Amino acid sequence: MDLDIFNPSLHLRRAVLFWLSMFLTGAAMIVTYLYASESYPSSLPVIEFMFGLFSGYVCYQTYRDQGSNLLRKAYVWSFMITIGWGVTHNPTAHGVYVWANLIPIMCYLILGKRSAKVVTPCGLFTITALLTMQMNQQNEFQPQLLVNFVLSFLSIWAAAHILEVKRTSSEDSLGKLASRDALTGVYNRHALVHSFERYRQESEKLPLSLLILDLDYFKRINDAYGHDVGDKVLAQTASLLDSLSEDHLVYRIGGEEFCIAFHNTSIEQAMVKAECIRLSIENHRFQVDKQTVSLTASIGVYECHHFNTLESVLRKADVELYRAKRGGRNKVMMSHYEKGITDTV
C-alpha cells in the first residue's frame, strides 16, 4: 500500500479544467454570435450557446472546489457531442473538425490515463465517421483532408499519452521519496502526519490505537558493533514489524523509534498485537555480518479519538513508552482515554 502524499494530479486537472472551460466559454459565445449574426439554422447557435453556458458552470464549480469526477466526464463528453454536432451541421470548409484535436489533451489532462484510453479512440472514431459522412453528403470527399486530420489527431494523442505516462511515473517516484524512510523502507514521520487526519476522521466510527515502539539500549549496539551494523539491525527490525503489522502501516518516527497505526482496532486488541510484537522482537536473532544481535523493545499504546491531534496522541503514547522504560524496559504499557486508566503487560 502506497500513500498518496506527493500527488499534484488533482491540482493539475483542476487548473486545466478551470482555464480550459473559461477559454471555451468565451469561444462558444463568439461562435454563437457569428452563427446568429449570419442567420444560420436556429439549432446551431442554440447548441453552441448551451455548451458555452455549461462551460461557464464548469468553470465556476471548478473555481469553488476540485470538481467531481462526474462533472469532468460530463464536460469532456459534452465537448465531443458539440464538436460532432458542429461537424455534421457545417460545411467542411468551416473547419469545425479541427477542434477535435483538443480531445486527447482534454481526456488525458482532465480525466487521467485510464479513462483517456477509452474516451479518446471513441472521439477519434466518431468525429472521423461524421466528417466522412458530411463530405459525402456535400459531394466533396477530400481524402487528403481526412488523412491530415487523422494523422494530426494521432500525433497529439501519442504526445499526450507519453507525457501523462512520464508525468505519473515521476509523480509516483516523488511520492515514494516523500513518504518512505530511506534506511528502513517503511513510512516516515511525514507520511504519518499526512495519514493522521484520515485516521482521526475514521476514529469517529472505528476505533484507532497508536503504538509507539522504542528499541531498548540501541546505543550499545552502535557502540559495540558500529553504526553500519546498527543501521542493518534497524532495517531488519522495520522488516519484522512490517511483517507482523498485517495491513496496518509502520512508520519510523525517530532514530530507533517506530509507530504503528492500528486502525479499526480497539485498545484491547492493540495490546494483544503489541505484546505479540514485543515477544517477536525479544525472541528474534538479528543476523548482521555473521554476528548475532539480540534486542528488546519498550512499547506504549494509546487509544485515539477524533478530537485528538497527532502531537497530543504521540505525547500520550510517549508517556506510556517511557513508563515502560522506567518499569524495567521490554514491556507494553497502555493508556485508555475513556476509562482514564493505564495498564501494563
> What order do the SSEs take from the amino end to the carboxyl end, as H and E?
HHHHHHEHEHHEEHEEEHEE
How much of the polypeptide forms β-strand, as a percent range? 5-15%
**Outline type:** elongated
Helical stretch tally = 11
Number of individual domains: 2
What is the CA-CA span between the terminal residues? 31 Å
Mean of residue pLDDT values: 86
Biggest sheet strand line-up = 1-3-4-2-7-8-9
**pLDDT < 50 stretches:** 337-345
Main beta sheet, described?
Answer: 7 strands, mixed
Proportion of helical residues: 55-70%
Radius of gyration of CA atoms, rounded to a whole number: 30 Å
Class derived from helix and strand content: alpha+beta
* Assembly state: single chain
Number of strands: 9
Question: Brief description of this entry?
Answer:
With about 350 residues, the chain is α+β, with helices and mostly antiparallel strands. It contains eleven helices and nine strands. The chain is elongated, with a radius of gyration of 30 Å.
